[in-house]
Design brief:
The chain is an all-alpha fold. Helix content is 58%, strand content 0%. The chain contains eleven helices and no strands. Helix 1 packs across helix 11 and helix 2 packs antiparallel against helix 6. It is globular.
Length: 229
């Protein structure tokens, strides 16, 4: 399929799913960008309810993120034990927060408001442990409200089944491909909507196993419809 045809298909998918899930979709939280960074790191391969509890535990236990940096790693791990791989996430979060402070000179990401999306993502992804999904989530979900497109596992699965990305394109590289299929002048709300509706479709219809193709509004344009068990 040509690049033009893919862009047209991406817009059609967006229109149909918006009609199903109701765009514009309200933002689910209103965190400052540094707090969103911590929240996003906790959420990797973890249910939202579990990562949310872990984030609240950190906020309640430490007066600020500097206190988390200074804490014993074992203590941090105990507070986030409900997430997947807490033994990896605890030292990683501390190391990333240290890197933010060392690189910028202070423990904040508010300065990213004054730069473009690509520059902001490059700055974030230069920190070891911060990948495309995390950088996009920080810019999109936080109070920065920037037009960056996150791609989670549900979003990625739906995009692959619809043929927007190839079967061998991993989550990381899919970010740039899927963003390029959307209009360059879309604002943060529309980009956020696109992520949310594809994610919701993966959660509610296009399941990993036995997708509900019989009630999918995209079945007629999906090359995988009724072919996945």
């Amino acid at each position: 399929m040509s690049e033009t045809a893919l862009k047209e298909k991406a817009l059609l998918i967006h229109k149909r799913l918006c009609a199903v899930y109701g765009c514009p979709i309200p933002y689910f939280q209103d965190l400052d960008p540094l707090s969103e960074l911590v929240s996003s790191l906790l959420s990797h391969r973890t249910k939202n309810a579990d990562s949310g509890r872990a984030f609240r535990a950190l906020r309640e236990h430490y007066p600020d993120w500097q206190a988390l940096i200074d804490a014993q790693t074992e203590e941090v791990e105990g507070l986030i034990k409900g997430v997947r791989w807490p033994e990896l996430k605890a030292p990683r979060i501390q190391a990333i927060l240290r890197a933010v402070k060392a690189t910028h000179g202070s423990l904040t990401l508010n300065f990213l408001e004054g730069v473009g999306v690509d520059e902001a993502r490059n700055w974030l992804e230069a920190i070891p442990g911060v990948g495309p999904k995390t950088s996009a989530a920080v810019l999109s979900f936080s109070t920065l409200r920037m037009p960056a497109l996150p791609v989670d596992s549900h979003h990625h699965r739906v995009a692959q089944r619809l043929g927007l990305i190839g079967p061998k394109v991993d989550v990381g590289p899919s970010h740039a491909i899927l963003r390029a299929q959307l209009p360059s002048d879309w604002d943060a709300q529309k980009i956020y909507d696109n992520h949310e509706i594809l994610m919701l479709h993966g959660q509610k219809v296009c399941f990993f196993r036995k997708p509900a193709c019989h009630r999918c509004t995209l079945a007629d344009i999906c090359p995988s419809a009724f072919k996945v068990n």
